[in-house]
Specification:
seven-stranded mixed sheet, zinc, alpha+beta, 3 domains, binds zinc ion, protease, zinc ion binding, 22 strands, about 450 residues, cytoplasm, globular, Immunoglobulin-like, 10 helices, Neutral Protease, domain 2, Peptidase_M1, five-stranded antiparallel sheet, Zincin-like
Amino acid sequence: MTAGGQGDVDPYQPDHGSTAFHVEHYDLDLTYRPHLNRLHGTATLRVRTLEDLTELALDLAGLTVEKVTLTGARLARYVHRADRLVLRLGGEVTAGTELTVVVRYGGNPAPISSPWGPVGWEELTDGVVVASQPTGAPSWFPCNDRPADKATYRTSITVDNPYRVLAHGALVSSKRRASATTWVYEEKRPTSTYLATVQIGQYEEHELVAEPVRQAVLVPTALRTAARDRLAHHGQLMTFFARIFGPYPFATYTLVITEDDLEIPLEAQGLSIFGANHLSSTDGDERLIPHELAHQWFGNSVSPSSWQHIWLSEGFACYAEWLWSEESGGRSADALASTWHRRLSRLDQDLVLADPGYRRIFDDRVYKRGALTVHALRGALGDEAFVAMVRGWTSRYAGGSVTTADFREHALEHATETGGTELAGEVQGLLEAWIDGAALPPLDGASGRGWLDALRR
Ligand SMILES: [Zn+2]
């Protein structure tokens, strides 16, 4: 807590975001010219202060601020430096004050460099992809860039014809004029900044499944057949996950396939982005497609409150791959767990899931050890209690943000309910070994076979 208004500093994002205020809503009114890579627009942020403040610092990188206005408090001046747009207030504003910040800005958006490569707004050969995890959101709009600061959005973006534009949320209008179309999307579910997105390309849309969750693919014409072949079983995948993880948390799900190859696929709110290369890779079906879909529950609906807790997203998404492998006739989750346990046992054992360190949040051991933790917990709880625990987790924290401590508490409650203090003690020891320790715990013969059959009944 500081009077300066930076709030508590998250060691996983020391130069990013603020806990001193909360953005309730982003209204983005943007125009983009693909051939010039020129973005221009106005962002209106509805803000509530959480502390007494004398300044308010937003994240915005690489774009030029033209004008800032503030209602609800007096703005003395603003400074835009080192990717921070700092509004100095004309006096102290008390906690709980509602403010409206309007920022007019523009320029040539570019990805932000991170230890894992460029993230955020990125030009494709013919269009744009926005994949912001973990710190790319300020490449296209001023924001409080913390995963826990979730907000609703209205995104209006005018782009030259014939480009197709997809943003997160529901399409509420598209007005076509002679040279450009204005697309308006509304996102009513709380959304982390890194999951806010815009996809621009010469795409056509195909519905894969209409009910109970609409699933569609946005794809360049040349990749249409390949995409439909690859995604023929997507409806089954969705149904299977909903049975184990609980109801799908958003209204629709769209897979975007870019014409370009992409290094990795990435999730955004209600959609995922894949490169053309992911359609032809044998990994696509078995691993990447279920992984990205699982993030809608783990990461997007139930979000990490800091990148420190990313194993709660990646561990579950990775475990979801193993579950789908078993369900779709591939290797069982148990067999995959044994394989990965063996591989991890040959790597350095110096990573702690509860606190991996910022530079290692995307270390593959976070993913695989996270999945093994889920598998070990399933073995201890038994399949029925495990599914109840997972469904309870996704419903209890739907639209919210979580820490490792929240998960521990939740799992222990289910252990107590299922097997009293004895099982709770066992689960507590198990979680301590897997989450807090660096040494790889043994993988005891975990799970009853045939549980997927039981779920189908
Ligand atoms: Zn992931």
